[in-house]
């Protein structure tokens, strides 16, 4: 198990001399001795430096790749996005969302952002295009709501009008924004993301 958690070269050292990250990995090695099918990790990267966080995320990925289900409890939502394929969000002891992370993130599409050196001409084309709604010019960029087919048709229409596009991207709420929306803005000590 020391090989699995990359501590083989420190096997003869006293645990008291281990760094926080090494102790975290040693704890995982101890949990793996019984060959579990499920591993529960609570904030495994807390207190680690950036390299230790990276190593811990790599270890979690490797374990999941070996068929171990990893249930990760974390308030670090960027880590949740990077590591997890399913998520449960808990508010006051009740699950308010459970499902695939990609499905939750798909609900986060809040519109599109378009940047062009000719924003006013681009706005006119947007307004004339079917399926493009709520067109607004803000801070030199156009923002609007539309389905994918309407956005594809818009990009063709802008090309035909010889209006250059420098940016055309979906506006997506972050996992943090979704989490706060589902937990009604509660502080992190009252809500947590649990990820498998």
Secondary structure elements and their pairing?
Elements: H1 20-32, E1 38-42, H2 50-65, E2 69-74, H3 77-83, E3 86-91, E4 94-100, H4 101-106, E5 109-115, H5 119-128, E6 133-138, E7 141-145, H6 148-160, E8 167-172, H7 175-182, E9 191-195
Parallel strand pairs: 1-2
Antiparallel strand pairs: 2-9, 3-4, 3-9, 5-7, 5-8, 6-7
Describe the structure.
By secondary structure, the protein is of the alpha+beta class. Strand 3 (about 85-90) and strand 4 (about 95-100) form a beta hairpin. It folds into two domains: about 10-105 and about 185-195, 3-Layer(aba) Sandwich (Rossmann fold); about 110-170, Alpha-Beta Plaits, CATH 3.30.70. The strands form two sheets. A five-stranded mixed beta sheet has the order 1-2-9-3-4. It has a four-stranded antiparallel beta sheet with strand order 6-7-5-8, covered by helices on one side. Mean pLDDT is about 85; it is low at about 190-195. The chain has helices spanning about 20-30, 50-65, 75-85, 100-105, 120-130, 150-160, 175-180; strands spanning about 40, 70-75, 85-90, 95-100, 110-115, 135-140, 140-145, 165-170, 190-195.
Briefly summarize what is shown.
This protein has 196 residues and is an alpha+beta fold. The chain is 37% helix and 27% strand. It has helices at 20-32, 50-65, 77-83, 101-106, 119-128, 148-160, 175-182, and strands at residues 38-42, 69-74, 86-91, 94-100, 109-115, 133-138, 141-145, 167-172, 191-195.
């Amino acid at each position: 198990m020391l090989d699995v958690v990359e501590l083989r070269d420190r096997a003869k050292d006293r645990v008291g001399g281990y760094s926080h990250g090494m102790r975290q990995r040693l704890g995982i090695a101890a949990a793996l001795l019984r060959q579990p099918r499920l591993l529960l990790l609570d904030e495994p990267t807390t207190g680690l430096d950036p390299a230790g966080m990276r190593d811990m995320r790599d270890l979690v990925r490797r374990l999941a790749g070996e068929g171990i289900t990893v249930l990760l409890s974390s308030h670090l939502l960027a880590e949740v996005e990077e590591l997890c394929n399913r998520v449960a969000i808990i508010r006051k002891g009740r699950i308010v969302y459970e499902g695939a992370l990609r499905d939750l993130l798909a609900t986060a599409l809040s519109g599109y952002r378009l940047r062009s050196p000719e924003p006013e001409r681009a706005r006119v084309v947007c307004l004339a295009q079917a399926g493009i709604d709520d067109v607004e010019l803000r801070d030199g960029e156009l923002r609007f709501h539309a389905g994918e087919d309407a956005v594809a048709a818009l990009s063709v229409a802008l090309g035909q009008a010889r209006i250059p596009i420098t940016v055309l991207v979906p506006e997506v709420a972050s996992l943090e924004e979704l989490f706060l929306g589902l937990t009604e803005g509660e502080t992190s000590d009252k809500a947590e993301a649990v990820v498998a």
